[in-house]
Amino acid sequence: KQWYQRRVAITAGTAADKFKEIGEVYEILADDDKRKTYDRHGEEGVKNMQQGGGHDPFANFFGHFGFGQQQEEQREYKGSDVVVDLFVTLEELYLGNFVTIKRDRPTFEETSGTRQCNCRMEMKTHMTGPGSFQMTQHRVCDQCPNLRQAIETEELELEIEPGMLDGMTQRFSGKGEPHMEGEPGDLYFKVKTIRHNIFERKGDDLYTNLTISLQEALVGFDMTLSHLDGHGVDIKREKVTWPGAIIMKKEKSTDCDSALIPLL
Questions:
Q1: Is the model's pTM score more than 0.70?
Q2: pLDDT tens column, 2-47
Q3: What is the 3-state secondary structure (H, E, C) of the chain?
């Protein structure tokens, strides 16, 4: 326990005046600007500085020394967030998909007995005699049901929206790590694109390499490339094709709300 004691001489007729005077003195000593003003201009300078401020030095004195009951602000606890990589294919990012994930989640469940919880420090002030006050600090706890660790199996359904980008997350509130004194954290699934054998995604564009013969490079070629959803993309060129040349074919998405993914 930590305790502080201060004695103030009080008579019946001057109690309020004495405390107000002490409060004003304390306020000046505690404030660097007011203390400097007092040193230079005296009490009148401090009064001029306070005009219009509406400050109550009497309340300030009691607030700092803890007369009456003061309580430490209660801290809010929360479990840690969990981030899980969600590996998806380019086909899923192009067409969209629903995925069901089964996972074992740590949690707490009630058991027999009680435990201390919501512990905090409280300040209490007692009058020990005429003009004498004593302030003590106490640790106060509530009584809560006892808890034990458990594993809960659950199924979560995720929607892979067409056009989602690498690194995007989906949040499930309260599905993260538990905390005995507060709410559980959140669970995040982070999109990770699996490397494709044919296409490479860059933003909303798809890139692929085409291998052609020397004759096709000189006189042109006509071929069909299978897209991510299986439909054919006709690629036709009737002039010389240099190595590294880029041919762009604009292809609309199968979903009007998803991003347009041109095929290069």
A1: no
A2: 343 444 444 444 555 655 666 666 666 667 676 666 666 667 766 7
A3: CCEEEEECCCCCCCHHHHHHHHHHHHHHHHCHHHHHHHHHHHHHHHHHHHCCCCCCHHHHHHHHHCCCCEECCCCCCECCCEEEEEEECHHHHHHCEEEEEEEEEEEEEEEEEEEEEEEEEEEEEEEEECCEEEEEEEEEEEEEEEEEEEEEEEEEEEEECCCCCCCCEEEECCCCCCCCCCECCCEEEEEEECCCCCCEEECCEEECCCCCCHHHHHHCEEEEEECCCCCEEEEEECCCCCCCCCCCECCCCCCCCCCCCCEC
